[in-house]
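Team,

Forwarding the record for the chain on the shared tracking sheet. I've put the sequence and predicted structure together so nobody has to dig through attachments.
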Amino acid sequence: MNQSHPMTPRAAGLAVGALSVGTLLNPLNSSMIAVALLTLRDAFGLDVLTVTWVITAFYLASAAGQPLMGRLGDRFGPRRLFVFGMSVVVLTCVLTPFAPSFWLVCAGRVSLAIGTACAFPSAVALLHPITARSGLSSPRLLGRLQIANTAGAAIGPVIGGLLVTFLGWQAIFWINVPLALISLIGVRAFAPVDAPRPRQNLSRVLVDSDVPGVLAFTAALVSLLVFLLGITSSPPWALLGVAVVSAGLFVWRELAASQPFIDVRMLSRNRRLVLVYTGFALFNIVYYVVFFGLPQYLEEFGGYRADAVGLLMLPLASLNVLLTPLAARFIERRGIRPAFLIGGVWLVAAAALMATLATSVTPLVPLLITAMMGVPYCLVSIAMSQALYSSAARESAGVATGIFQTSRYIGAILSTTMLGIAFSDGTTPSSWLEVTVVATALGIVLLVLVSRWRPTSQKPVSRTE
């Protein structure tokens, strides 16, 4: 497909559809594995602590891999990287079900995380040429990607439960093969080809890729996240020291590099982008506190079965998916800041409403809370995506989006740490009130933060911005 040739709305829609299928694979696999833990324990003779590494490995690889994949997309072209990532997913998910040991399954999960990490940064970077050539609205197309991300996380436990029950744990890998192939073929057929890049030898590519910066960033992030994951039991303080030293080396390296992996000088000047990253991490702490904490509370204190809890959580996911197109249209007409303010206020109110679960766990109460939470999760999330899109420079859209996704995983891991501390003495009404107070306070901080958001233009988001 010619890079400068106009795209029809139908072709643009098919391209974004193919990109959306690829972007749902990462959240799908991050949530689908949860229902396979018991089966994996029985299959490989594991204890509870060991089997959780199949989740941890995926989270760590995703958090560290997103900015790196974004950088590679900026360097070699987002379409090429997307196709590469889907190819990795297909190969990984064909081979991993035959792994003879649990640790090879974890290695497969790492490879799957890297392959799926190529998708979202590449998809966001490809929206620039798609919107420019088709004239379609960027909020609307971002909304489609957001629906895919939300749907992937929402349907993961349902699909995973069916696959594991009837086909075994191997099926949670196999399901990715047709989805990745559909996405790969669709992107090859409909997405704009990458702009020509000059050919360079391997040594030049390695220098331009800032390998020392990548390694320092990865070491700092992984050591920090592993420290946070273990903070509720026996904190590995040495890893905190490694994280601090690695972070210092990373900043020093990036300030000295001629082509840094992450331009920290630019980041310090682009306060709008820093606000987006910080706000997105805070937002995801509150999101995952409900997503992970509410099921535990309802099962352990409320006495609900797992299938009933899934139904009680359904309004959170379904409203998020259903309202995202409306939120995208609202942002298109009114702008990002009004969406931030309305979503932030609603999030604080919904978080405070969680306190009612300390007095009653009858079905109507969690249904009301998950329905209330579905609205701000939809509105704030799509506003964050659009704020990122409008704040990041086009030439570094891939790495900027990768850091954005890393903020999501940091928020998720911080939420599990918070829940571990709150529930350490039991899942009780008093511990749930602690969670509610912290979630509400974080919601207020987020509201204050997003109220400082100012667009570069006071006009609503344009159709091609």
